[in-house]
Design a protein that fits this description.
Nuclear Transport Factor 2, Chain: A; Pathogen-related_defense; 30% helix; single chain; alpha+beta
């Protein structure tokens, strides 16, 4: 079946006019209509076109798009694949191939706490299962915005906000219908071509899980039914 061309996305570069050789995880470029609407309705900042803040915001959205939807690192245009490293909360950095293998959620949520204290066990999740977990909880997507930018290239420092509407089950907890959000700080080091070499992210996962675990526990069979329904929805919302 032929892939329907996606409408041009105003927040993500390298989503259109790609070579036919690019391998997409779901067969073609994703569409971001739902999460773009959530972003536009819920953002707290609207940066002027061409501003450093807008450039940084769209660059991070582009990198996340490539990480979530491209299969091969060689098809990435936003990073320097030979030098790329992702560091979260001071942990050991992950290279490009490892980050691509486990996915953005697992990379951001890995931690060294004993298993009994882990709200989310990243080591037990695959790329696919991690995306299903959060797609289930946030059917409209998980929006992201830049709150401030403190320095320009080559080392860009910024503050960000991540949010979604908790409308589906999360790990056996019923949705609350409330906005779930957290804030964090990050730095991005770019080369002379403005391709990303290093990303460092610092945030408190407790901010995220405190809201996700507020919902009452739901029966296991009901949780699986709701999750399966959400997973069958369009996968291109994040």
């Amino acid at each position: 079946m032929a892939t329907v061309p996606a409408a041009r996305d105003k927040y993500r570069s390298f989503l259109h006019d790609e070579a036919d050789s690019v391998q997409w995880r779901h067969g073609g470029p994703p569409t971001y209509d739902a999460v773009n609407q959530l972003f536009e309705q819920g953002r707290t900042k609207e940066w002027p076109e061409g501003s450093l803040e807008e450039i940084v915001q769209n660059a991070i959205k582009t990198w996340e798009m490539e990480l979530s939807h491209k299969v091969r690192l060689q098809d990435f245009k936003s990073i320097n694949p030979e030098k790329f490293k992702l560091i979260v909360n001071g942990r050991e950095g992950l290279g490009g191939e490892e980050t691509l293998k486990i996915g953005s959620y697992n990379a951001l949520l890995k931690n060294s706490l004993p298993k009994e204290f882990q709200y989310y066990k990243a080591d037990e999740e695959t790329f696919e299962s991690s995306h299903e977990v959060f797609r289930s909880a946030f059917p409209r997507g998980f929006a992201w915005e830049v709150i401030s930018v403190y320095s320009g290239p080559p080392v860009i420092a910024f503050k960000f906000r991540h949010w979604g509407i908790f409308e589906g089950p999360f790990k056996g907890h019923a949705p609350t219908g409330e906005t779930v959000e957290f804030y964090g700080l990050g730095t991005v080091k770019v080369d002379e071509s403005l391709k990303v070499e290093d990303v460092e992210i610092y945030y408190d996962p407790g901010e995220l899980f405190a809201d996700l675990l507020k919902g009452p526990s739901i029966p296991d069979s009901e949780s699986k039914t709701e999750t399966a329904h959400s997973a069958s929805a369009c996968p291109f919302q994040h």
